[in-house]
Amino acid sequence: GSQGELCAIQGPSSRVELSVSCSGLANKDTFSKSDPFCVLFVKDAQGTWREFGRTETIMDTLNPAFVRSFTIDYFFEAIQPLRFQLYDEDSKSQNLREQDYM
């Protein structure tokens, strides 16, 4: 998927690459291990959380080290709330309501 744009924050900035890995996740599957992926949300100027991007899904693991990273603009002297949410992929749907929140 394509990565979103942060809201219109002005000032000096730098590109930052964020990599995500996890250990000891709760298992959400009954007959195998979870198939986790990570979704990054950023809060816009209106205070709304917006999806910025997703990692790939890694099958059958509770200790994922995701290859796909997130590249964002880091603005010095600005607060940029980020939220990372993990899901267990249960279907190929892009709708997060159809996945298990971890």
Class of secondary structure makeup: mainly beta
Level of helix content? under 10%
Q: Sheet with the most strands?
A: 4 strands, antiparallel
- Kindly, what is the distance between the CA atoms of the first and last residues, rounded to a whole number of angstroms? 21 Å
Question: Total strand count, please?
Answer: 6
Q: How would you sum up the global shape?
A: elongated
- Please trace the helix and strand order, writing H or E for each element: EEEEEE
- Global mean pLDDT: 87
Range of strand content: 25-35%
* Low-confidence runs: 1-6
Number of helices: 0
| Sheet with most strands: strand arrangement | 3-2-5-6
CA gyration radius, whole angstroms: 15 Å
What can you see in these coordinates?
With 102 residues, this protein is mainly β. The protein contains no helices and six strands. Mean pLDDT is 87; it is low at 1-6.
In short:
With about 100 residues, the protein is mostly beta strands.
Helix/strand layout:
Blueprint: E1 13-18, E2 36-43, E3 49-54, E4 70-75, E5 82-88, E6 100-101
Antiparallel strand pairs: 1-4, 2-3, 2-5, 5-6
List key phrases describing it.
102 residues, mainly beta, 4-stranded antiparallel beta sheet, two-stranded antiparallel ribbon, 34% strand, disordered N terminus
